[in-house]
Amino acid sequence: MDDKKLIGELNKILTLEHGHLGMYKNYLEYEDQEIRRTFRRFMEIEEEHIGKINTVIRNLGGKPSLTVDGGDIIGKLFGITLNTVADINGQLKVYSFIEKKSHEGYAKFVSQLEQDTQERNQFIAEIAAANMLEAQLMHLWLDNRRRS
pTM for the whole thing? Predict the structure, then answer.
């Protein structure tokens, strides 16, 4: 994958990570203590993802995307209006779906990078794989909490 395409893909991921951050940034509004604590940690994880992707883009000589649309970018992508999901169970279901799609997107990206023999792309694949794992763990927590 050449630099221009790689930076473009990373900027798409960055935009989506900002959308994920938008999902969890209002953690203080939740009455349930476990959800509040978990969403705060999820917000921190999304901030870490954003930081890692920003660093990779800059190290490649690119400029991180300014296409940040809060949580609504996620809703637009999946045809979901996040702000209208009133009950917590519905919200957990939507967030679980989004994290599952994130995991799938990361898996595809990691696979593309791993097929490239450049060491640089192998290194970036490891960074993306860590984000992929965390997306899967968030999906599983959300799905489990919704079902309990």
Answer: 0.87
